[in-house]
Amino acid sequence: MASVECIDLRRVFELSDGGEEVAVNSIDVTIEEGEFATVVGPSGCGKTTFLRMIAGLETPTSGDILFDGEDVTDVSSQNRGISMVFQSIALFPFKTVEDNIRYGLKYADAEGEEVDSRVSEMAEMVGITELLNKKPPQLSGGQQQRAALARALIRDPEVFLLDEPLSDLDAKLKSKMRTELKELHQMLPKTTIYVTHDQVEAMTLSDSVIVMNDGEIMQKSPPDEIYDHPQNAFVARFIGSPTINMIKGTVEDGVITADLFNRPLPVTAELQETVDREVENNEVLVGVRPNEVNKVSDGEDSIITGSVRIYEQMGDENIVYVESSDEEIRVSIPPNDIPEPDDQFDLTFTHEDVHLFDASTEEVITNELTRP
Ligand SMILES: Nc1ncnc2c1ncn2[C@@H]1O[C@H](COP(=O)(O)OP(=O)(O)OP(=O)(O)O)[C@@H](O)[C@H]1O
Ligand SMILES: [Mg+2]
User: Which reaction equation describes what this protein catalyses (predicted)?
Assistant: First the structure.
């Protein structure tokens, strides 16, 4: 097993029209030995390129990759001790599933009873035992994905790299495989870097979540931390569904004011000083998650008043889109509470649930506003 360290890693593609595409801009990150790190971020932000560089399948334009402190930047993929499952499945179409899995051991000893039993064990784990004699074109996308996973798992890699390995599976299988991957990692805590579009996967599987944007890492933190303490507005918006509300406001004279607010929100003198010192024009974004916004109870002062535009029934909650001063606020309410269109909602939230960001840099000011 190995730790993976990337130092100022960069990959620029030359385009045929003479231009260039900066796929990975400047990545500095360490994934500890045995850590399970997931990588999330919008399509095209450089996740696959990042993983392929660690795998040795893509040459960095500049920067270094270290496994256990040793520079492997110029070491070939075969000699890095990695195992990778690709976003696009790359099984051999003319070999049986069984031989495809066995091929995972190409550089090891691929004969003998022990290997046979490992093949069956892996096939069983991913639920394709009855497909071992078929060939990949005869399988569904999800079945192919599971065969590719078995092939990667059978090798005993130092570092396990997975690029959206569950994307073609249906919801039920996905959740089963997710649990199995987690169990597998608990049994054999291999250093794992796992790219996914699925937030549930990122939050449930990993020791740490890496949020990428535009070829850069915006934050690397444990799942609860990335949700509770986003370091910038991008991470706050990217993690959590429905998306966090971001309300434009100003912090002046000891209060936050916003067009949307019925009343100013008091802040501590200390926070006011920080904003005066660090925030351009004192302009901020007030971030409040939909599940932290509540309808006021009797006698309580509301912060926002608006009317119901639409709502979505999600099963365990209803998401209500409330319109106020041309802005939209997303509110999560209990499933049995069904609003009528144009209903008036008087809303409130507590100071502690506010994430405050600098409106121009989008960097966090505080993730827990304190009441003066
Ligand atoms: N071989 C290549 N030549 C030119 N540009 C490339 C090449 N590979 C990737 N890119 C570009 O680099 C950027 C990052 O691509 P990458 O595949 O790493 O994104 P991604 O985060 O994995 O996206 P997705 O979530 O859609 O898989 C994209 O803008 C892509 O078009
Ligand atoms: Mg990709």
Answer: D-xylose(out) + ATP + H2O = D-xylose(in) + ADP + phosphate + H(+); L-arabinose(out) + ATP + H2O = L-arabinose(in) + ADP + phosphate + H(+)
